[in-house]
Amino acid sequence: MPYYKYEEFRKACHKGKVKVLAFRKVVTDATECFNLKTVRAILDFIANGGLEKLEFVNCKQWENNPDKSNPIMVDSYQFHTMNRLGYIAFFQNAKTDKWIIKSFHLSNQRNLAMELALKKAGLINGRKERR
C-alpha cells in the first residue's frame, strides 16, 4: 500500500521546483530514457499525466537517508509511456515539506522481447536498464 497519495505528488509537480526536487541522477536518467532534459520537463511530464497505467510497486524505508533519526518512506511505481515501461520512486521530506524524486528510469520488469523488436524496426533507440 502506498505511503503517500500519488495525486498530491502529481499536484505538487504543477508547482515546479518550489515543491518538488530531483536527484541529479534522475535528470541524467530521464534524459537518456525519456528525452526529458531538465527537472522542469520531468515535472511537467508528471503533472500533465505522462505516467500512464501507473502501477504501485512497493513502499520501503529510504536506505541511503543521511539523517537516520528522520526515517523516510519511499513509494515506487511502474508506468507506461512512449511504448516503454518506466519506474519512478519518490518521497516527501516532512521537515522541508518538499517532494523528492529519487529515481526515474526504465523498469527492469519491461518486456525486453517487444523492446528488441521495436529497436530492430528502428522505432526506438537503445536505452540502459536500471532499477
Keywords:
131 residues, alpha+beta, YaeB-like fold, five-stranded mixed beta sheet, 4 helices, 29% helix, 31% strand, disordered C terminus
Write up what this structure looks like.
- The protein has 131 residues and is of the alpha+beta class.
- The chain has a single domain (6-120), classed as YaeB-like fold, CATH 3.30.2310.
- The protein has helices at 6-14, 24-34, 39-47, 112-120, and strands spanning 20-22, 52-61, 73-81, 84-93, 98-106.
- A hairpin with a 4-residue loop joins strand 4 (84-93) and strand 5 (98-106).
- Mean pLDDT is 88; it is low at 127-131.
By secondary-structure content and strand pairing, the structural class works out as: alpha+beta
What is the C-alpha radius of gyration, as a whole number of Å? 15 Å
Low-confidence stretches: 127-131
DSSP summary: helix tally: 4
Numbering strands along the chain, what is their spatial order in the largest sheet?
1-5-4-3-2
Give the % helix: 25-40%
By CATH reckoning, the class would read Alpha Beta
The general outline is globular
Main sheet record:
5 strands, mixed
Task: Report the strand count.
Answer: 5
Range of strand content: 25-35%
In CATH terms, what is the fold-level topology?
YaeB-like fold
State the domain count: 1
Provide mean pLDDT, rounded.
Answer: 88
